[in-house]
Amino acid sequence: MGERRSDAKRRRILDAAFEHFLARGVAATSLEQVAETAGVSRQTIYAHFGGDSTTGGAKDTLFVAMVEDQVGRDDDEPHPLVATIPWTDDLERDLATYAHHHLTLVMTPELIRLRRTILGEAERFPLLAATWFDQGPRRSIEMFADWFETLDDRGVLRAPEPMLAAETFNWLVLSTPLNEAMSLPDATTSRDLTRYADEAVRVFLAAYRS
Question: Which residue ranges does the chain devote to CATH 1.10.10.60?
């Protein structure tokens, strides 16, 4: 029972840290704010994440734990097209559907704020930023490369360098909406996302389709 209570407190602390770090940034967030939102004491945060009122240290450890917790979450089932796109009989349709899904997911407001926060702290936490990149952008690009390698083998695409094709595709889909969102919150509507996804696929296939 005590272990479950401790786990529940840790969960509340991480959720509160996510809320405050993303809204205010690490430097402007105090442990008192996190503790109040989580319904715990500062000492409880120290007990879970190290440091004390004299030496400090708990806030940085908490930030690292919060990012690792978010990166490690895998709540969503893979999109059905992940497995079927390499064998599709209508590549333009299926690639556009997935491009819209991918863009919508990346543009989730919470993920945009998390991205801003991680990039803002990348110089202080380079390994953490690298972990985020490996588990997020790099994993998507490697999945696209696997698709395009199979589609090249099938003669559907001309993609002798699947990784380069994957990086190109990812950039075409994300570039303008993501760049705007990183600087201009709420700048892109759902209708805009569909338009960007469709155009990205059109341009990609114009270059790569056999």
Answer: 2-66
Residue 41 parent element (H or E): none
Write down the CATH number for the domain with range 81-208: 1.10.357.10
Task: Give the burial class of 206: count Cβ atoms within 10 A of its Cβ; 0-12 exposed, 13-18 middle, 19 or more buried.
Answer: exposed
- Answer yes or no: are the C-beta atoms of 85 and 95 closer than 8 Å: yes
| CATH classification number, 2-66, choose in 3.20.20.150, 1.10.10.60, 3.30.1490.20, 3.40.50.620 | 1.10.10.60
Residues 109-143 pLDDT 10s: 888 989 999 999 999 999 889 989 998 899 999 99
Among 15, 26, 36, residue whose Cα is nearest residue 56: 26
Here the tokens at position 168 are 């190109």
Q: Are the beta carbons of 111 and 67 closer than 8 angstroms?
A: no
Segments of the chain scoring below 70 in pLDDT: 1-3, 51-56, 72-76
Burial class of residue 29 (count of CB atoms within 10 Å of its CB; 0-12, 13-18, 19+): buried
Three state DSSP letters for 106-153 = HCCHHHHHHHHHHHHCCCCCHHHHHHHHHHCHHHHHHHHHHHHHHHHH
List where CATH 1.10.357.10 sits in the chain.
81-208
DSSP assignment letter at 209? B
Assess contact for 63 and 118: CB atoms under 8 A.
no
For residue 131, give the nearest of 180, 60, 176, 69 by alpha carbon.
69
